[in-house]
Specification:
This protein has 2 domains: about 230 residues, 3-Layer(aba) Sandwich (Rossmann fold), CATH 3.40.50.300; about 80 residues. Helices cover about 35% and strands about 25% of the residues. It is built from 10 helices and 14 strands. The strands form 3 sheets. Strands 1, 4, 6, 7, 8, 9 and 10 form a 7-stranded mixed beta sheet that branches. A 4-stranded antiparallel beta sheet has the order 12-13-11-14. A hairpin with a 7-residue loop joins strand 12 and strand 13. Helix 3 crosses helix 4 and helix 7 packs across helix 10. The chain starts with a strand and ends with a helix. Bound molecules: adenosine-5'-diphosphate and magnesium ion. The site of magnesium ion has 5 residues, from helix 1.
C-alpha cells in the first residue's frame, strides 16, 4: 500500500481543492485525491470528517462550492449524465424498495440507466451472480441479511458497468465472514480495471483490501504527511521476550530508538526499525545475546498507526 503524494497520469478520477459547506458547517474544506484504474483507494477518517460529503461530490450527486472534479475526463456536475454513468455509487445507508425482489431491484436500476427491459433483466442476473446472490434473486430485498444487502447494493452500483466505483463504508456492520467476501469482491472488481474508492472509519477492516490510502481529518485530505506517517508506522515492531529477560537494557545498549509498553515489564518493548532487513538483524542480535524472544512483529495495522499519529498531531 502507498499513500498518495501526486496525481499519476492515466487516472480515472481526479479531485483538486474540493470544498463544500452546509450553512455554517464546513463539511469539506480542502480535499484532493486521484483514483487509478485497477486500484483500490481507501478514504479513511473519523465520523463527521467529511467522507460522505466528499464522495457525494465525486459521484456528481452534490455540487462543490469550489475546486475541481474530473471523472474520466468530465466534470460530473456540468457533464452530468456522461460523467455520472461512469460512476457506481454505493451509499452507506441502504435505500431499497423492500417490496421488490433482488432481481427487480436491479432491473429497475438498469431501466433507469436506459437499458431495454431484456438487457436490464440479463444484466441484473449477471450482477447477482457476481455478488453471489443468484440464489436469492426471487426473494424480497427485505429478507436479506446485512451482508447480503451490502452485496445487493454493490450489485446495484455495478448495473451501469462503471469504471469508477465509490463505496461509502460498505464494511460497516458486517461480520468477519461477510467482510472477507466483500474484500474479495472489491479486489475482483479492481482487477477488472475499475478504480475503487472505499471509505471507512474502522481502519483494520481496510488494511488488506486497499492499495492506496487517503486520510481525511476535519474536512481536509492529508497527502504527503500521511505518506511519512505510514512509513514510520510500518517501522514500529514489538519485541516480547520470556519473563525475566531485559529487552529494555539490550535495546538501550544497542542504541536503538525504543519505548516501553504500558502495563508490561522490561521483557516487552516497541522498537523502531529501518526496514525488514534491519528487523531481522535486530532479532539476530538479541537472540545472539541470549535473550529468549517469544514474539517479534510490526505493531498493529500500519493504517491504524498512521491514523492515530495524524489524529494526535492535529488535536
Ligand atoms: N446535508 C447536511 N446538512 C448539514 N450538515 C451536514 C450535511 N451533511 C453533512 N453535514 C455535516 O458535515 C460534516 C461531515 O459529514 P459527513 O460528510 O457525513 O462525514 P463522514 O461521512 O466522514 O462521517 C458533519 O459535521 C455533518 O454533520
Ligand atoms: Mg459518512
Amino acid at each position: 500500500m502507498t499513500v498518495q503524494a501526486e496525481a499519476p497520469s492515466g487516472h480515472a478520477l481526479h479531485a483538486q481543492g474540493v470544498r463544500r459547506s452546509f450553512g455554517s458547517v464546513q463539511a469539506v474544506i480542502n480535499a484532493s485525491l486521484t483514483l487509478t484504474p485497477g486500484t483500490v483507494t481507501a478514504l479513511i477518517g473519523p465520523n463527521g470528517c467529511g467522507k460522505t460529503t466528499l464522495m457525494l461530490m465525486l459521484a456528481g450527486l452534490l455540487r462543490p462550492d469550489g475546486g475541481t472534479v474530473e471523472v474520466l475526463g468530465h466534470d460530473p456536475v456540468t457533464a452530468g449524465a456522461v460523467a455520472r454513468r461512469g460512476i457506481g455509487w454505493m451509499p452507506d445507508v441502504l435505500g431499497m424498495w423492500d417490496s421488490l425482489t433482488c432481481a427487480e431491484t436491479l432491473e429497475t436500476f438498469g431501466r433507469a440507466y436506459g437499458l431495454p427491459r431484456n438487457e436490464a433483466t440479463e444484466r441484473a442476473f449477471a450482477m447477482l451472480e457476481k455478488v453471489h446472490l443468484a440464489d436469492l434473486a426471487a426473494q424480497p430485498a427485505r429478507v436479506l441479511s446485512r451482508g447480503q444487502k451490502q452485496r445487493l447494493s454493490l450489485a446495484r452500483a455495478l448495473m451501469g458497468d462503471p469504471a469508477v466505483l465509490i463505496l461509502d463504508e460498505p464494511a460497516s456492520g458486517l461480520d468477519p465472514r461477510s467482510r472477507i467476501e466483500l474484500r474479495d469482491l472489491v479486489r475482483a472488481l479492481a482487477s477488472e480495471g475499475r478504480a475503487v474508492l472505499i471509505s471507512s472509519h474502522v481502519l483494520s477492516e481496510l488494511d488488506e483490501m486497499v492499495d492506496e490510502a487517503v486520510f481525511m481529518s476535519r474536512g481536509v485530505t492529508l497527502g504527503e504527511s500521511a505518506d511519512a506517517e505510514v512509513a514510520r508506522a510500518r517501522a514500529r515492531w514489538r519485541v516480547t521476550a520470556l519473563p525475566g529477560h531485559d529487552v529494555h537494557a539490550a535495546l538501550s545498549q544497542a542504541a536503538r530508538d525504543w519505548s516501553p509498553v504500558e502495563g508490561a515489564d522490561a521483557s516487552v518493548a516497541v522498537v523502531h526499525v529501518a526496514d525488514a532487513d534491519d528487523a531481522a538483524d535486530l532479532l539476530a542480535s538479541l537472540v545472539g545475546q541470549g535473550i529468549r524472544i517469544s514474539a517479534f512483529g510490526p505493531v498493529g495495522s500500519a493504517l491504524e498507526q498512521a491514523y492515530l499519529t495524524i489524529e494526535q498531531e492535529r488535536r
